[in-house]
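for the writeup, i need someone to sanity check this before i put it in the appendix. the sequnce is what the collaborator sent (i think, or maybe the updated version? ugh). structure was predicted straight from it, no edits. if anything looks off just tell me and ill rerun, i have time this weekend
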Amino acid sequence: MTLFGDPAVWLPLAFAALMGLSILIYVVLDGFDLGVGVLSPLASEEEKDRMIASIGPFWDANETWLVLAIGILLVAFPTAHGAILTALYLPVAIMLIGLILRGVAFEFRAKAPVRWKAFWDKAFFWGSLMTSLSQGYMLGLYVMGLQVTWFTLGFAAITAVFLTVAYSFIGATWLIMKTDGALQRKSVAWAKGGIWGVVLGMGAVSVASPFVSARIFDKWFSVPEIFLLAPLPLMSAALVALLWYALRYLPTKDDSWAWFPFVATIVLFVLGFFGMAYSFYPYVVPEQLTIYETASAPESLFIILIGTLFVLPMILGYTALAYIIFRGKATALSYD
């Protein structure tokens, strides 16, 4: 036993928490800029420039969290990495193609000849859509325990659509906060139309998870757990109601509440994440492999942890710095 207890227990748990934190931050941060990309065909040419300007300083750094999450999965839980990536090979490939297409389109739409701008705008949209749909598909198949049947594939397809709409919703709430005028009013209308994706997506995962696994069912519906966990769905329902109410009265004359839908959506995503984390713990591959069975040797994990303690604050630091420096309303797009 060490000062912190058994390293074979706390080290896998620590890395699972770090991986979960990375995934959560990625879903929130890259979620809104993917959502902006999905919404882009609904905007005018001038509005597209404003939308791109609103995510320009952030989108590249947001994707760092995906790299960190996959890196932790690889080095801390190599067996799980192999099992998950094998089962999700095709959607992962589509996601990577989408991310590459987004990155290229983001740069080229401003630097290529004007006649090519419309092409790169479409590429930006399709890259965002491919990435969002593939991530939703992976989420659905993961919830189904990575089992491939007609039912699980159908559920994965449904969650692909719901997550994409949920991303468009958080993207719309970001635009409400970062823009004004006609584009802000459009963003409010987009958010009103997209809130159903958040509700149905979280509802589908919440309903499906307990019925896929008897273990998860018992974790949620046994006594006293059912009473102790009741605040999670109740708080989520209250936030959805507050979001719907707030969107009815936005934008305000003084723009004082433009931040609320975005912040409330983040809290909603956090609640959903903790619900999933509670459901699937201690499994990293649902109902197949636990974090303790798939973890690397404690000696290796300890060395990796030391490096992580240096790298993670740097990522958090420059991410926070970017959002502080570029706070406020998005200005006109310029690459000069």
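Residues 149 and 155 are 10 Å apart (CA to CA). Residues 7-325 form one domain.
thx in advance!!
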